[in-house]
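Structure, all two chains, one model.
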Amino acid sequence: MDDTTRTEEYNQKAIRYSEFYKGKIQIVSKVPVRRLQDFSVWYTPGVAAVSRKIAENSDLSFELTGRWNSIAILTDGTRVLGLGNIGPEAAMPVMEGKSLIFNFLGAVNAVPIPIRTKTRDEFITVAKALEPSFGGFNLEDIESPKCFFVLESLQKTLSIPAWHDDQLGTACITLAGLINALRVTGRKIKESKIVLLGSGAANIATAHLLFAAGFNEGNIVMADSKGILEPEREDMDSLMLNNPWKYQLAMRTNSERQKGPSEIAFKGADAVISASKPGPDTIKKDWIRTMNDDSILFALANPVPEIWPEAAKEAGAKIVATGRGDFPNQVNNSLVFPGVFRGVLDARAKGVNFDIMVSASHEIADFVKNPSEDRIVPTMEEWELYPRVASAVASKTVELGLARKTNSREGFFKNAQEMIETNRKMYIKLMDEKIIKELPGGDNVEK
Amino acid sequence: MSKSEIKIRELKDTDVSVAAQLMLRLKKLNGEFDSIFKVSDGAKAEAEQILSEALKDKAKHLSYVSERDGKVLGLIVINLIHRCYYEPEIEARIVDFYIMPEGRRTGAGKGLLDRAYKELKARNVKLITAEFPALNPIAMKFYKGLGFREIVGIYGKMLE
């Protein structure tokens, strides 16, 4: 089946199933309800005693309510998938899907909350107002550069972690893959020259994460549709006003002060991380030929990578990664966010930062035993990954003094593993009992 | 990246082309704030001409550059204007002041101003002003920080 036919089939099914199930998630009780009198404890009058305790110490909301395991998936619907600004209502199916992955892989209760806001300040106000109900925020599908303002502001002012998956999730799995790609090709982090092609949300975060991971700032070169980022570029003043993050990176990176079209940066590069325009002709074979021997290429655009992996390999790339599951080395956020959130929630974290992310990336990289050119990252079916990432993240949170709750690394691991397993059992049980209804039209038998 | 010392010196004939590029960047920045300052096609040639003329008449124009490792990082051009009706009679007006991104926050800008102040003092000039688009908040903040205040308003509109 070719890509177009397969995509079309997924589309048809998605609509049919959405009509049938009318949403993907629901709230189910986690306490027994044997008779209606039980509500005198779960609800009034008994519940007032619990409220009084929290009123005295609001941090108890993490211990006496479900706040510790609840996050909000916040979006304004301004940059949904590749669909653009389709609004909050239309963003809901995507946010429900994200919530499902959060729950299935990480046992996190993620509440999808698409909001109708216009300005970044409005968004920030709404997010801050929601803080008391949640243990963390996952920002999703917000246009750039608004997403940078919002994330930076929330990380500064909230006392729970704020994560923007399009930035941080992508950066985290990219670093994990890069660490292994450098291992496979016998390179050192400090000495490697890395080109970041595309300077949107993902690569701007990746640049910062590479700094935190010990890469040499000057060895990193960023490029966008206008060419290599460097301080003398014509549009620097415009960037200073409209996208200060990009402007700052133009100063910090590219110590050779390369300038001109993006392909110039490929020359002598060890790795190119492309989060750019969908291909397959965005990156040319000739450009890859100018890279160092055993070069590394991440072509992360969806649905079509900037260059097909086969073509990249013909041109000399030793390791190629894409965003797709039908090629080796899928750089996939879903390997990151369930474990990261399991970890910060288990530590009742006050925040999340690049140092914590570096720990997550190293854990993901180390999870791959004997990495090879076709295996630099784990796959989603490797269940032990999520509690491993969770325990690495939680331990780092403790080390950095950002945790409200401490435990040993082993303790965090066991706790996360048990939660995720118990949660999976619930899915299996509900499906076995057909409380979760079978797929319509006899689709259930399909593998 | 080199962190050599920043030098301040007078503009020379050989700087004109590079300095004109800095002026052009400044004009483009003005355009970012307000479309009424859309840069024209002939702007580059005009900038070079203005700088050349400034070099010819040093009684009426002060111009300095800041440089690091032989590379021009900043430019200031000040016109000395005769004021009718008021005193002091001479006004020093900053008409072009631009620092390349890499020269910002390095003292390159302050160095240029200090040098200009010194010369103005020697010439006994008592009033300094700066001209910039009303919608440029960066310039406004910068000059306010240096003790400047708003003294003239020029209002404009495009005619249909």
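The domain at 8-145 of chain B is CATH 3.40.630.30 (Aminopeptidase).
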